[in-house]
Amino acid sequence: MSRACIQLEEMTQKKLAKQLAFQCAPLLVGIKVSNIFIVSIEDEEHVKALFKESRISYDILFKCEKRIVFFLYHKKHLQKHLLESKQQQLMKQLGYEESSLEEILKQVASRYQCYMSFKQQFPHELGILLGYPHEDVKAFIKNEGKDCLCTGYWKVYSNVNHAKKIFESYDQAKQMVLQMVANGMDIKEIVEKYHDKKQRPLAV
Q1: Which Pfam family name is an example for this entry (predicted)?
Q2: Which of 17, 25, 93, 94 could potentially form a cystine with 174 if both were Cys, beta carbons 3.0 to 4.6 Å apart?
Q3: Does residue 121 fall inside a structural domain?
Q4: CB-based burial of residue 95 (10 Å sphere; 0-12 exposed, 13-18 middle, 19+ buried)?
Q5: Full-prediction pTM beyond 0.85?
Q6: How many domains does the chain have?
Q7: CA atoms of 68 and 59, how far apart (whole Å)
């Protein structure tokens, strides 16, 4: 590989690391079950390589000529989240009969692709997969996204104080991971550092 190619590869990795730190820090440090990550189609293989044999899994929600939408997630934590009775009940109401994570992600991806390509209904169940509070997802659907009490990483319809604490912890995670990246840590190192820790870096 030529020196120019190596430099380009390094620049791409640094760019993706900063983008991941900015958009997905809570996931990287283990205080969030999943994140959506949207990149240019040119970065597809770089993202796949970054999470290959990583503790963070990925699925592709949507892909077109210009961009690709990744769904990044901690498999074990997301499975546990979806096994909660209140999550299962809402998922069934939204048309999900299968309880396996693989089948759920396949169906979500199909609905998301229909939304992106044909402007069909947005799959609000993504809110459940992203770890948003069950009550807020239900209220968002019922109110069609209107009349929320506050807005942060999601639209809040109940338990505002608790939601604000979570928003604050996500902001702290973002600053922390951005600093780690600036200090030269790569994304895999950050994931390994915090994955499955009994003591999370931030209280939620």
Answers
A1: DUF3793
A2: 25
A3: yes
A4: exposed
A5: yes
A6: 1
A7: 11
pLDDT reported for residue 204: 42
Residue showing tokens 């690391």: 17
Q: Would 203 be classed as within a structural domain? A: no
Instruction: Kindly list the distances between the CA atom of residue 73 and the CA atoms of 11, 14, 32, 110, in Å, as whole numbers in the listed order.
Output: 25, 21, 9, 18
Over residues 143-196, the pLDDT tens digits come to 999 999 999 999 999 999 999 999 999 999 999 999 999 999 999 999 998 875
State residue 40 phi and psi, 5-degree precision: -65, 150
Task: Answer whether residue 40 is part of any domain.
Answer: yes
CB 195 within 8 A of CB 74: yes
In 157-202, which ranges are continuous DSSP H helix?
160-182, 187-194
Domain extent for 73: 11-194
Do residues 82 and 101 lie in contact, with contact meaning Cβ atoms separated by under 8 Å?
yes
CB of 168 closer than 8 Å to CB of 160: no
What is the Cα–Cα distance from 154 to 67, expressed in whole angstroms? 23
CA distance 35 to 152: 15
Say if residue 77's pLDDT is above 80. Answer: yes
Torsion of CA 166, 79, 77, 153, to 10 degrees: -20
Q: What is the pLDDT of residues 104-129, one digit of tens each?
A: 999 999 999 999 999 899 999 999 99
Give the other-Cβ count within 10 Å of 58's Cβ. Answer: 17
Tokens of 118: 């044909």
